[in-house]
Amino acid sequence: MMPDTVENQKEYPQPSSQKPECGFPIAKIGVVFSLVTGTAVALCIDVLNTHDIKLARRLYSFLKPNDVLLGDRAFCAYADMVTITKLGCDAIFRKHQSRTTTMQKGKIVGDCDKLVTWYKPKSCPKGLNKDEFDALPSSITVREVYYYVVIPGFRTQQVSLITTLLDKAAYSTLEIVGIYGKR
Description:
Elements: H1 6-11, E1 27-33, E2 40-47, H2 52-59, E3 68-71, H3 78-86, E4 90-94, E5 107-110, E6 113-119, H4 130-134, E7 139-149, E8 157-163, H5 173-182
InterPro entries: RNaseH-like_sf
Organism: Nostoc flagelliforme FACHB-838
Protein name: Transposase
């Protein structure tokens, strides 16, 4: 939220759910932080109704080769995994809830750890233009890692991570879970 000035209302209109002149302008802010230093590496600001992934895509240009990008389910999309790997970077994202997979499919590389093939979507997703969509490869291989959150007195929760860090010898299952846990 920001001060209710005419300039701010013009640039960052308040949500449509608020009655006119009964709220504050709200900006959506996307930031890339360094896990090593804790500093902000890049920042972008847009209007409230901008989806997080659109902000993130504007920040990809600040990634350097060998960076590992951590993110939640909103970022775990086919096009983004491809884009990040083309930059020479890797990603660890929580698997989006609409993507269903089982341990029966894919190449099992360890307990709760497998390599799976993702196929290009049949239609162009929102946020991509036709040229960007057409440039995507027909498939990519990603690694899916499962782990469980056990809290006494609560239902055990399974968490699925998707990563482009495919080499189990270089990045163990436990290391990937640990890196994501730092997020």
